[in-house]
């Protein structure tokens, strides 16, 4: 365990007991990373995690990797700064926008089943719901080329920022869409791609309209159960995480640090509410990119990317990151206050599943790419 003196200032933070979700039927394996690993920590991954914590980039870091030499998982930092308990490499965490990949997979399965097409106008299935829905296609919504206004750009509507007691409010998806569409989107004429959480609220609504079931139930039935992702859940209005988990903290502009672990994630809904572990994210990427969930044609469509200015190309719910060595990694990143996630895989099966509970000096892009290059290059 690494102790950082600066974190002792967090001792005054109220450490409320974390509610355990009953929706996740399995408890992670809590054996040590070394016992589960087929790789030696001499590869430097543990040192990398320790360095991130020592540099105050994180209070906790969980990592599961697969390289040509095998698999390794480990953790650094503390599960909460008050008790100083070591972070558990098998812990649960909020995956934020990695949820989008799960939702996109379900909608693409419905395309495979002939219930809709990627070039269908959204208005065909959700009449009157989306402005200009007659001209915006299902594919554009999945790829963030719809240019719909992001409701999370409004003050008080983003789960990446501290919202005080408002973080326990419950939201319905139609309320999120009403907020997004209360004013027209303003986009420069040369913009062709714009990341918007509104798109994946529309994706969730499409799933529900076409199946007659909650989108989360369809994620469970179509993705979690077939791949045996027993450590992944769609929490809905439940504010806590299953144990074990590392707490997420937020540093406020006035210098205070608050425990942001407990929150109602319905403000994210299909755009970012889910909870998982590094083990389950690894299984998910293997199942999805290995062809177990979609037809070859639909998986190819999912992986066909549009250029962006955000450091990655974007497919239909998938990000593709290029690396300096010429290789690339495919998956998704996610952020929800207190938690940052990267779930990435290469075509030859190498993986990086990383959860970071950010500290006061978040890791640089260069540090993250250096870790990714160690795995994928």
Topology:
Elements: H1 33-36, H2 45-54, E1 58-67, E2 70-77, E3 93-94, H3 99-112, H4 122-125, H5 138-143, H6 173-180, H7 197-211, H8 215-224, E4 249-251, E5 257-259, E6 275-276, H9 278-289, H10 296-303, E7 313-314, E8 319-322, E9 328-336, E10 339-345, E11 351-358, H11 365-376
Antiparallel strand pairs: 1-2, 1-11, 3-6, 4-5, 7-8, 8-9, 9-10, 10-11
Describe the structure.
- This protein has 377 residues and is of the alpha+beta class.
- Helices cover 27% and strands 15% of the residues.
- It has 11 helices and 11 strands.
- The protein has helices at 33-36, 45-54, 99-112, 122-125, 138-143, 173-180, 197-211, 215-224, 278-289, 296-303, 365-376, and strands at 58-67, 70-77, 93-94, 249-251, 257-259, 275-276, 313-314, 319-322, 328-336, 339-345, 351-358.
- The strands form 3 sheets. Strands 2-1-11-10-9-8-7 form a 7-stranded antiparallel β-sheet, sandwiched between helices. Strands 3-6 form a two-stranded antiparallel ribbon. A two-stranded antiparallel sheet has the order 4-5.
- Helix 3 crosses helix 7 (197-211) and helix 6 packs across helix 7 (197-211).
- The longest helix has 15 residues, at 197-211.
- The protein is globular and about 55 Å long.
Quick synopsis:
By secondary structure, the protein is an alpha+beta fold. It has helices spanning 33-36, 45-54, 99-112, 122-125, 138-143, 173-180, 197-211, 215-224, 278-289, 296-303, 365-376, and strands at 58-67, 70-77, 93-94, 249-251, 257-259, 275-276, 313-314, 319-322, 328-336, 339-345, 351-358.
